[in-house]
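ok so I'm stuck.
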Amino acid sequence: MPRLALAALLLALPIAGCGIAGVAKIEAPVTVYVSLPLTGPRAADGRDAADGARLALEQAQGKAGSIQVRAQFLDDAKGRNWDPVAVGANARQAVQDSSAAAYIGELDSEPTRASVPITNDAGLVQVSPGAGGVDLTQPAAGYPDSPDRYRPSGAPNFARTVPGDDVVVDAAANWVSELGATAAGAASDGSSFEDLAASEFRTAAGEHGIEVGPTLHGRKVALYEPSGGTFAFGGQSYAVSAELDPSRLPGRQFAAQFQRRFHHPPGPYAAYGFEAMDLIQQAIGGAGTDASSFRDNVRNGVFGAHRYDTVLGSYSITSDGDTTECAIQRYRIHARDRIPLGAPCPPS
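replied:
not stuck anymore, here's the structure
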């Protein structure tokens, strides 16, 4: 028996009933764990993503096909950006719950790197509404043995509804080229993330015929800062973001629905939390009720899923867990305000 199926069987049997043929069946409701920063500096974004997930479940009336679904919302921050003890505890709580069908989280890449090995070892699919780390789905410089280091089971279990950081960097370089920059540089604080993003930006800019280097001067020079996805050019500041501005979502009704339900406008992570839950519900609805294969079937329903006319438009999840949704939000920064512009996909 495959390792993932065996893990699912051992975890599911305590709550499973038996059908006429003696096959252990899941007992509803099944649980989707949602682990996000509900306190601390990222609380506003985390709560928006959580509320998006809550709205998706409510709109489905708590069902995925014929299976009842409930959500368990957990704080992974404890007043910080993220708390390693909380992240580990949340993931372990999920995998040890025989009713768990899936795990939504974390919001950022660093805590996701801590939780994915735990959920992966138990065969529990994990979908993030915000973690764009390249290493989570493919080999990446500065992250040895990625993504295998996050896959103790030997098979992927992590997917995301947001484009990866590499897509964001490509979009930034493309926009710099469109604006007419002839030279570009990228800052880095020495972290693996910023080193990788700076290197990818310089490569992408070079492919557009832009001179790249550490010390460049002049009015046609663009300087990119990976930490905020921002760059300066011609006396103006710009930013790119993997999360579409709520006003630019393909699902035009989402912002109004969110406002009616929660009495405030959605932030940029709300739609990605909504879509994470909706994607998982689709997978649960097609997973059947055989307890021995249920978690495997939910996971397989996420990978390779085709999604049509969603709040994020139409897209698929690749075999590595990346989304084919590639629209990257452009902003012009004026004072402290971000003014949303277009949201094109970077050229392939």
